[in-house]
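Narrative of accomplishments. A recurring question from our advisory board has been how the design workflow behaves on a single, concrete structure rather than in aggregate. To address it, we present the structure tokens for one chain from the evaluation set, followed by the sequence designed for it. No filtering or post-editing was applied between the two.
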């Protein structure tokens, strides 16, 4: 069984989730069950899927959860764009969050590639 807490991508995703929870605390109360909830849930889903995948027995199962984490990262990216366009997130914060989510997406892509059966270098941290 893999230790998800040792994954750099999980650490970055967890930090992003904490930051998103702090940022959305300032969203209007009428967004509590809308955008606030969606951003919080989709950001937390990245780390959740990585943790779940680490508990799987096969690399194929693990890879499937890494890919679901990548889907959640794309969802976060859209919600950040929507937050900016609705005026709930200023340009500076948007750029910071956008850079973070894009780095996480790149890392997830790399991890997914390493889990590909025919990938040339399959050495992964356990």
């Amino acid at each position: 069984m893999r230790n998800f807490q040792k994954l750099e991508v999980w650490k970055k995703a967890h930090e992003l989730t904490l930051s998103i929870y702090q940022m959305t605390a300032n969203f209007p109360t009428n967004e509590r069950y809308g955008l606030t909830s969606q951003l919080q849930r989709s950001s937390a889903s990245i780390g959740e899927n990585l943790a779940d995948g680490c508990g799987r027995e096969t690399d194929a199962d693990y890879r499937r959860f890494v890919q679901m984490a990548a889907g959640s990262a794309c969802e976060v990216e859209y919600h950040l764009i929507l937050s900016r366009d609705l005026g709930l997130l200023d340009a500076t914060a948007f750029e910071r969050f956008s850079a973070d989510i894009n780095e996480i997406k790149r890392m997830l892509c790399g991890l997914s590639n390493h889990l590909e059966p025919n990938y040339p270098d399959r050495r992964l941290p356990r």
